[in-house]
Automatic annotation (TrEMBL):
InterPro entries named among the record's database cross-references: AlgH-like
PANTHER family: UNCHARACTERIZED PROTEIN YQGE, UPF0301 PROTEIN YQGE
Name of the molecule in the record: UPF0301 protein G5C33_09855
Similarity comment: Belongs to the UPF0301 (AlgH) family.
Domain of life: Bacteria
GO cellular component: cytosol
Organism: Stakelama tenebrarum
Taxonomic lineage from the root: Bacteria, Pseudomonadati, Pseudomonadota, Alphaproteobacteria, Sphingomonadales
Pfam families named in the record: DUF179 (PF02622)
Amino acid sequence: MEKTSFLTGQFLLAMPGIGDPRFKRAVIAVCAHDEEGALGIGIGETIDGLGFHELLEQFEIDPGNVPDVPVHFGGPVEPRRGFVLHSTDWGGQDTIDVGGRWALSGTIDVLKAIAEARGPSRWLIALGYAGWGEGQLDEEMTRHGWFSTAGDVDLIYDVAALDRWTRGFRQAGIDPRLLANDTGTA
């Protein structure tokens, strides 16, 4: 059996000096990665001034008693498209299981379920995503830019967005203060 290096269900942590300011200190939850490409949701940055209640109001959904949590910047691709990373205790018509670690939903049914207190027990809302074409992420992984780690799934739910990058490296046994901005040559 051929061993694959697909990263579904792992986290990508941007290395210092990644070279793309959109991904500085980025933390990406990889939701799909195969020979056709990859899709991930950014969980390391929130969108200033946008809370969950405002998002629900745009869909005319009563927020009920749901907390008005920040909405995350999921990535630069389709920045108006919404996604919910959530625990696997709930599923809707388009929900995909991400390696048994978390689930991803992208339709209004998950928003309604959360607002009505019948949705997943743990969740995070994001707009946009990070996407890679066929072989693109695989090639990027051979250069200085991304570090992949299985990490603890609690990184999604129990760590503040701005602390996820540092915590992700620490969970992997790496002190991010000691990371170089580029790689050496031999």
